[in-house]
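Progress note, sequence design subtask.
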């Protein structure tokens, strides 16, 4: 017995306590889609957790790493989670199944179907949080992405790999501009992704119907986090969209992605952050709300040939209040993007649609991607429009105008009327250049303003039926020979109208 006790004492004296690391934690509190967890000392930021409940596992995404606990946002049916439930670390960052089978589908932010069809087949798993391509992987924007909208392609051109903000008040046609850009990508090889963040399901279903009728759903994916979904789903939706876009870019393909809209995305992130007890800053947004959108939009770029080529063109949408583009979120996104298309309520109410304010809209890099013929015509036209806007505000106070001022005003009225365009009716680049040349050279000066669009339709129809080679030549370049042919065609058309 004495020997046993001495051996035991010897073992105890040489024993060193060691911390036992467990891959399991315990839920300590649950509220509004947010869960706090004790344990899991080795967990990482953005890691996926599985909460074991009576009805099955619920996924959660790590958002806060604190000294004594972990803060995570839950995905799926969170009502079944209770205090005391066991939480298991997966050791993997949050990733999504992606593949070409996602095209033509309406999906939720987790790539699960919302259109009643079987789940899309996944070719790969991509992490949702991914580092944007570095400078050495990129090349400059020099290839156009045509929207089919005259005023954009002429005055605010967009190139593949660009980030162009669409900004304006509610109900000014922001979504319409983005959808028209998607419609115009038919037969171009560009894949399109429309991310609906906090939108009504009825609105999104109308968009799906319009795209289906136009044959655009074949190359488009709709990712929907509706207004009735949780803040966590609204938060992850745009990252899910760009994750799918990166799959196509890695294949060397071009992608157009629309985020509609990032104002609601910022609001969802604010709600999440306040529930996670992060310190509020300006307008109660967390301090990293700029990083929220910068790390998303920086993933849009054009890769060089050495790194696979391909591009992601981003059209983020921001909703302003009473036209105030100096708000916190608008200025944040303006500083991240390569230009903005500003839609103005007053123009919209006057019937100028798309209601794009050419003075406040700018494209900082798209001019390098503009085709030669459009660049030749658009330069003088932008100056003419600017002069018209300037003179228009003064002319209402003075009835005695000199002939030159009257001429500028009359031509400006016709240019403004010409730039109006019905939704879901994109125009080819050749036709755009032809009608803008027609107007900017004064051939419309004698046409009454109310008949400008009628004459435009007749002229485009004449070129398509009688002079299609001119339209093809315009799209491939610009020369004196092409200009002479176009001028001759205009004179023949005018003689036919007399």
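Output:
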């Amino acid at each position: 017995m004495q020997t046993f006790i001495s051996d035991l004492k010897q073992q105890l004296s040489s024993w060193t306590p060691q911390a036992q690391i467990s891959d399991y934690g315990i839920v300590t509190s649950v509220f509004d889609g947010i869960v706090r967890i004790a344990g899991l000392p080795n967990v990482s930021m953005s890691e996926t957790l599985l909460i074991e409940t009576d009805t099955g596992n619920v996924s959660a995404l790590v958002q806060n790493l604190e000294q004594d606990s972990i803060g995570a946002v839950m995905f799926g049916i969170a009502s079944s989670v209770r205090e005391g439930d066991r939480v298991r670390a997966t050791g993997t960052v949050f990733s999504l199944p992606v593949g070409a089978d996602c095209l033509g589908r309406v999906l939720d932010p987790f790539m699960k179907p919302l259109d009643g069809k079987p789940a899309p087949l996944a070719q790969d798993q991509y992490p949702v949080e991914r580092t944007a391509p570095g400078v050495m992987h990129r090349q400059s924007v020099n290839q156009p992405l045509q929207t089919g909208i005259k005023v954009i392609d002429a005055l605010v051109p967009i190139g593949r790999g660009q980030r162009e903000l669409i900004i304006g008040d509610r109900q000014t046609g922001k979504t319409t501009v983005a959808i028209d850009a998607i419609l115009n990508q038919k037969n171009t090889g560009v894949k399109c992704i429309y991310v609906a963040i906090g939108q009504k399901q009825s609105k999104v279903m109308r968009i799906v119907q319009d795209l289906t009728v136009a044959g655009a759903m074949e190359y488009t994916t709709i990712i929907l986090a509706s207004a009735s979904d949780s803040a966590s789903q609204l938060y992850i939706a745009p990252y899910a969209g760009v994750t799918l876009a990166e799959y196509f870019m890695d294949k060397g393909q071009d992608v157009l992605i629309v985020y509609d809209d990032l104002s609601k995305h910022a609001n969802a992130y604010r709600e999440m952050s306040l529930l996670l007890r992060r310190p509020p800053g300006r307008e109660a947004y967390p301090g990293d709300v700029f990083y929220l959108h910068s790390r998303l939009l920086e993933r849009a770029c054009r890769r060089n040939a050495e790194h696979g080529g391909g591009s992601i063109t981003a059209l983020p949408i921001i909703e302003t209040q009473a036209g105030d583009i100096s708000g916190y979120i608008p200025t944040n996104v303006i500083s991240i993007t390569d230009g903005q298309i500003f839609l103005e309520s007053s123009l919209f109410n006057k019937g100028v649609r798309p209601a794009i304010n050419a003075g406040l809209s700018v494209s900082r890099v798209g001019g390098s991607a503009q085709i030669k013929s459009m660049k030749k015509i658009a330069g003088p036209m932008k100056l003419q429009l600017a002069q018209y806007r300037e003179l228009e505000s003064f002319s209402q106070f003075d009835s005695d105008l000199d002939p030159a001022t009257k001429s500028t005003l009359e031509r400006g009225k016709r240019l403004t009327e010409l730039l109006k365009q019905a939704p879901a009716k994109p125009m080819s680049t050749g036709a755009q250049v032809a009608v803008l040349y027609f107007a900017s050279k004064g051939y419309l000066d004698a046409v009454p303003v109310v008949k400008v669009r009628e004459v435009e339709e007749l002229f485009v129809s004449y070129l398509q039926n009688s002079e299609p080679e001119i339209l093809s030549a315009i799209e491939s370049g610009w020369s004196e020979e092409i200009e002479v042919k176009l001028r001759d065609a205009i004179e023949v058309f005018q003689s036919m109208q007399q």
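The two ends are 125 Å apart (CA to CA). Work on this subtask will continue into the next period as scheduled.
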